[in-house]
Amino acid sequence: MIELVLGIDVGGTNTDFGLVDSDGKILARGHLDTRQYPTAGGFVAALAEGVGKLLQKDKRFQLKGVGAGVPNANPFTGIVEDPPNLPWKGKVALRELLTDQLKVPAEISNDANAAAMGELLYGAGGSKNFVVITLGTGIGAGIVADGVLLQGRDGLAGELGHVIAIPDGRLCNCGRKGCFERYASATGLKETMHELLARPGARSLLSGSDPRNLSSKHIFDAAASGDLLALEAFDYTARIIGKVLADVAAILSPATFYFLGGLANAGDILLKPAKSYFDQALLFIHRDKITFEISSLKDREAAILGSAALLWHKLEK
Amino acid sequence: MIELVLGIDVGGTNTDFGLVDSDGKILARGHLDTRQYPTAGGFVAALAEGVGKLLQKDKRFQLKGVGAGVPNANPFTGIVEDPPNLPWKGKVALRELLTDQLKVPAEISNDANAAAMGELLYGAGGSKNFVVITLGTGIGAGIVADGVLLQGRDGLAGELGHVIAIPDGRLCNCGRKGCFERYASATGLKETMHELLARPGARSLLSGSDPRNLSSKHIFDAAASGDLLALEAFDYTARIIGKVLADVAAILSPATFYFLGGLANAGDILLKPAKSYFDQALLFIHRDKITFEISSLKDREAAILGSAALLWHKLEK
Q1: Which domain holds residue B184?
Q2: A39: CATH
Q3: Which residues in chain A have Cβ-Cβ distances shorter than 8 Å to B252?
Q4: Structure pTM?
């Protein structure tokens, strides 16, 4: 028999899933359009059908469990509460739904924690003290300390996106002002670019473009072409990343920050200046001892592997 | 036999030590004047002599180990490096010196981590996720996550005193500007009071007092007598504590912040407004779920118990 765990990456638009063996190899994978399922029940039923088909591909396949990475998922309660980008409303007992439909143990966690578990089990180069940061529409973080996922009192540790980066800064969805994710996410970069474009006499390849259609990819392409304003937007974002992570380093003393998600794909244009600002801002005892790296797991795979890791980790205990 | 661990609290002025049993009771205690010993070797020899006398008090006493809480101590290397307030210079292999002289296993850690271990083993009301903050001449923190002391890559996690509280603020000994401990330590409170007293037309019970002789106790006494300027100094300090700890809460999701050290003795005059600012600044998912408490361990006992706890914890593993 080949023992497998189903890893699910639930996103606002796409849900990817895969059957993962204990070595972290994805042996089969599938996909759902999350928006087609207004209820979690319908979503899980469709998922179970898709997984059933994958399991038939090889008679040796044996499903041992399921792990899901979901925005706003609470690993302690198994409940997903008011996920901002998903069609489901209120409190959804997702862990229970998964166990009921798939007849195996289930674990759920937020996507950043799932990515951190993936990094720990299948990446991370043996490091046991690191932070995985997802720079996407928002910002999430999974913290690993001495080889253990830091979950806090209630499973909700790692809300790095809601550390205050700029006192009295931009208004955040959380109701407060100046949150890190209002600056250093893809959304934040776009807002910075809008502000720079609105300056009198601003000149950029992106001048005159419809703000609603401007994406972080457009800003990246402009910066890569040498557009000074786009480069300034990245530099501003990098400065804030450097500053906030220097504070995080003082608290956690990690060996590495791993970056993941849309904005992390900007690579050197963002992370090189961010590292430089970070080193300038860092407390001397940590100088030259902490690295910035793009996650060793590919974006889409990381989420599936990480979600599966939530359960593999438990099975192997 | 009564198995005991020697707990040592090494401070810049005083060193307290005690023989602690496995229930956290101090059965005998002693004291050294730290400043009398220009070298760590001389200090440890005097300590060994003092401990020898304590051990003779009861024939059943049996020393199993020694734990020391020392500023700038690295638990991984066993070395104390350039402690700012101690007479010893350079790198001191204190763990080795202790083992050599006392012939038992030794552990060293910084004072805040020792206090956190003390809180975990002998206080903390069963909580496994908390932060112990020492508000003394500087600020230290010991973080406990899921019942384990968070040490980071190198044993140097918890440098909360060097999170930037005020961008481009007061110059810190670490060479950077705006560190938390430049505001929320006893030293920081004094500096705030100096600034307030220097305002044109400032009126206070402390007006005209020699700044060199002004202590945080004087400011506390003035505030307790209703002095508006002294109360303003505490309010300003409280606002910064609230703001910084709200960020720490977003990262760690603790159940409790425990306060210890000289400034924590100000009690409600400091911690009540600090909690109020903290609640205002807190991310909604944590609201009404995190408490502020004065450490349940008495100041001087906490350090001895915590230091002993470093080793008891290891013996019991």
Answers
A1: 126-294
A2: 3.30.420.40
A3: 150, 152, 157, 251
A4: 0.92
